[in-house]
Amino acid sequence: MRRLSLLASILLLVSPVSGEEYLNGITWQAPPVVDPGKSDDSPPSDAVVLFDGTDMSHWKNGDNWPVADGVVSSGKGQVVSKDEFGDCQVHIEWSAPNPPKGEGQGRGNSGLFLMGTYEIQILDSYKADTYHDGQAGAIYKQTPPMANAMRAPGQWNTYDILWTAPRFNDDGSLQSPAYITAIHNGVVIQNHFELLGDTPYNRPPQYKQHSSKGPIALQDHGNPVRFRNIWVRELQPVQGEQTRKPYLRDGKKETPID
Questions:
Q1: pLDDT band for position 11 (cuts 50, 70, 90)
Q2: Which of 48, 58, 61, 94 is the most buried (most CB within 10 A)?
Q3: Residues 6+ apart with CB under 8 A from 132
């Protein structure tokens, strides 16, 4: 009897008090099935793999960045992906030079550019000083990261980024800004930050109309930063159609909600 009483108490906790069920009246398309990969360093099945450790064939100027032992090192000139993306998820792993050399912006400097225009900084900020909106994880010249989650030089850092591309009206004016959420080594460093525009060094940020998709770019700043496991997933909004008004259902009884 005690077991039955306990089971009844649990059912009361997890069961709705009312018999009514809310239905939103939307007919949803089934979400696509994505294989997440066999391990943490495996790309999902729908990812565009930009660097898998073998070659730089997915990049313009890739021949000038040397590949060895599954790793590519920054070389002469920036590299720009041949594929272009709008809203997307980006995964990239990078390692600052060891032993470290230089100071400030001259210490393990590179940069990841979304749509070839908007930079999240790559820099050796491990026990090293620079201006805060230029350290690792900063949206360059716009905001510092929420935390400094750097690993020591020579160790691998991971950025996982959710990018919402800006939208423009037909007349070139800004319809909606870009947003970025970024996770550095498992630590949230940007939380849906609204970008003020592009990320130049020598002037205030501004938006200038561009296409709805753009490339991923990696900067050459003269420092031998290493990279591996670079992939991108295009993000598509969930699809659904309002096929009837929202309603409450209680058994066979349906009550529309105005």
A1: very low
A2: 94
A3: 138, 144
Q: What is the pLDDT of residues 214-248, one digit of tens each?
A: 999 999 999 999 999 999 999 999 999 999 999 99
User: Which residues on adjacent β-strands are paired with residue 187?
Assistant: 184
| Cα 134 to Cα 21, 69, 82, 109, distances in angstroms | 51, 30, 27, 10
One-letter amino acid at 154 equals G
Q: Residue 202 in 3-state DSSP?
A: coil
Q: Using an 8 Å Cβ cutoff, are 219 and 110 in contact?
A: yes
Pairing of strands 79-85, 157-164: unpaired
- Using DSSP, state whether 20 is helix, strand or coil: coil
Q: Which superfamily does CATH assign the domain made up of 32-237 to?
A: Exo-inulinase; domain 1 (2.60.120.560)
Instruction: Using alpha carbons only, give the angle 141, 158, 183 rounded to the nearest 5 degrees.
Output: 60
Cis peptide before 215 (omega within 30 of 0): no
Helix extents (H) in the chain: 2-14
64 DSSP assignment: G
Per DSSP, 100 falls in state -
pLDDT at position 103 is 87
pLDDT in tens, 157-182: 999 999 999 999 999 999 999 999 99
What's the one-letter identity of residue 229? N
